[in-house]
Write a structure and sequence with these properties.
MetI-like fold, 2 domains
Length: 310
């Protein structure tokens, strides 16, 4: 287990370094932050002073070395728009993003898991086809399309819910309903396939032949074994939520990390964009490492392989 964790940590460190380098150079090669911040009509003296103040007049290699040194000391830079620390701006938005992504994750699990299980227990039926159709629609429909449809139904047509903002819990309903179907659809399809695979195993047929009640077979044998590979899909669901939050927060004017990233990219606010990307990368790495560790703990075959290796 120690070597397993060390390998994952080395891969995580390499991934963070790659993301940091790519984000740094791509951002600076994509446009002039001085022109985006001060406007194209600003005097050349003002543009030069801006670049000198933020170190943008130095060679890219020197800028990168200075940035890496700052990050290693915990300094992620300051926003070019208002001069506040980038880490502080991002930290303020994290709870706001979690207010919609965490409920969306729970809702996706609550909808997708039972649907996948019941579809697997009734393969080829109308219920199974309806679940799979809904699952495909859930993870195939773009977030901004679903968001606009929900706004048209619940805000424009019926006036039940607000179309944007973040004043109270009612403003979070539509963003959550927009984010949840993608994860629910992915989970439903994965659980259905895992359950069908488990139900086709020899030990299930043996238990059935011995007269073990079907309910006990499903609850004691099929579900626990199908849940082990299903753990891996949780990492994909978290990735979908992070990617979807950028679009959803923009559609619903939700002031979270996703909207901050979109605004910062448009204004070439380098420090904020880099801080958000590092946070997202770290979140994804942590989620995938947790899933890998949990899978290694739950799967008895991996435990036996480690015991044999010793």
């Amino acid at each position: 287990m120690t070597s397993f964790v060390l390998i994952r940590l080395l891969r995580a460190s390499a991934t963070l370094a790659i993301v940091l380098a790519v984000a740094f150079f791509v951002l600076r090669l994509s446009g002039d932050a001085a022109l985006e911040t001060l406007s194209i009509d600003a005097p050349s003296e003002a543009l030069s002073a801006f670049r000198a103040h933020w170190g943008l007049d130095e060679p890219l290699s020197s800028q990168f070395i200075s940035y890496v040194r700052s990050v290693l000391t915990g300094d992620f830079g300051r926003s070019m728009r208002d001069g506040r620390p980038a880490a502080e701006l991002v930290a303020e938005c994290v709870p706001i993003t979690l207010a919609i992504t965490f409920p969306a994750l729970l809702l996706g699990v609550a909808l997708g898991a039972p649907a996948g299980v019941y579809a697997a227990l009734r393969p080829g039926t109308g219920f199974d086809r309806c679940v799979m159709l809904a699952a495909v629609a859930g993870f195939s429909t773009p977030s901004f399309v679903l968001g606009l449809v929900l706004v048209w139904i619940f805000s424009v047509s019926f006036g039940w819910l607000p179309s944007g903002g973040a004043t109270n819990w009612r403003h979070a309903v539509l963003p959550i309903l927009t984010l949840a179907p993608s994860g629910a659809g992915t989970l439903a399809r994965f659980i259905r396939n895992a359950m069908l695979d488990v139900l086709s195993q020899e030990y299930i047929r043996t238990a059935t032949a011995k007269g073990v009640p079907w309910r006990r077979i499903v609850l004691r044998h099929a579900l626990p074994n199908a849940a082990i590979p299903t753990v891996t899909v949780m990492g994909f669901m978290i990735g979908q939520l992070i990617a979807g939050s950028v679009v959803v927060e923009s559609v619903f004017s939700w002031p979270g990390v996703g909207r901050l990233l979109a605004v910062s990219v448009a204004s070439r606010d380098f420090a904020v964009v880099q801080c958000v990307l590092l946070l997202v990368t770290l979140t994804m790495i942590t989620a995938n490492m947790s899933v890998d560790l949990l899978y290694a703990i739950l799967d008895p075959r991996m435990r036996r392989e480690r015991a044999t290796a010793r």
